[in-house]
Amino acid sequence: MAKVFIYFLIIYLIQIKNKSKAIIIFYCDIDIKIKGTGSSTNILYSSFESLPSEIYINGKNQTSINYFYTLTTGEHFITLRWNYEFESLKNIFKSITNLIKADLSSFNFKKIKYMQYMFQGCTSLKSVNFRNFDSSSVITMAYMFDTCTSLTSIDLSNF
Fold first, then answer.
1. ∠ CA 92-93-98 to the nearest 5 degrees?
2. In the chain, N or C: fewer CB atoms in 10 Å?
3. Domain containing 80: what range?
4. pLDDT tens per residue, range 5-43
C-alpha cells in the first residue's frame, strides 16, 4: 500500500512541476508617454513587425489591439506588452512625432539584434530609459535617434 501511495505522490509531483513550467509566460514590456491630440494617434510604427499581446492606456487594458488609438488631448501613459521574444525593434516607434518618453528598463534585450531607426523622426521625444540594457546581441543601431531634436536624456545605467 505504501509503495502505491509513493508512486502516485511522485506522479502528482511530476504533474505539478510540469504544470508550473507551462504557466510561466515571458513578458517584454515597454512603457511610453505620448501626447494625445484628440484624434487618431499612432502608438507604434504602422509597419512594425508585430503588435503587442496587450496594451494598457492609462492603466486600462484595451480590448482591441491596434497600431493607433484616439487619445484625448494631454499626456497618456501606455504599456505595450508582448508575451514572446523577438529579434528586432527596427522602426518600432519611427515617426511617432508625439512620443515624449520611452522606458525600456524592464525590456529583455538578450535576443535583440536590430535596433535601427527605432526612434527616427520622434521629434517630441525627450527621454529614453535603457537602464539594464544588454547590448551583447545587437548588430546595428544605425539612425536610432535620427532627427530626435527634443531628446535631452538617455539613461544607460548598467549598459
1. 165
2. N
3. 28-155
4. 333 333 333 444 444 443 444 567 899 999 998 888 889
DSSP string, 85-102: --SB-TTTTTT-TTEEEE
Looking at residue 155, what DSSP letter applies? E
Q: Is residue 73 part of a domain?
A: yes
What is d(CA 30, CA 43) in angstroms, rounded to the nearest whole number? 11
Classify residue 18 by its DSSP letter. H
For residues 98 and 62, the answer to whether their CB atoms sit within 8 Å is no
pTM: 0.79
Grid cell 544605425 in the structure block, residue: 142
Task: Specify if 88 maps to a domain.
Answer: yes
The C-alpha cell at 9 is 505522490
Selection from 34, 126, 25, 144 nearest residue 89 by Cα: 144
Q: Within a 10 A sphere around the Cβ of 56, how many other Cβ atoms?
A: 16
In a domain? residue 80: yes
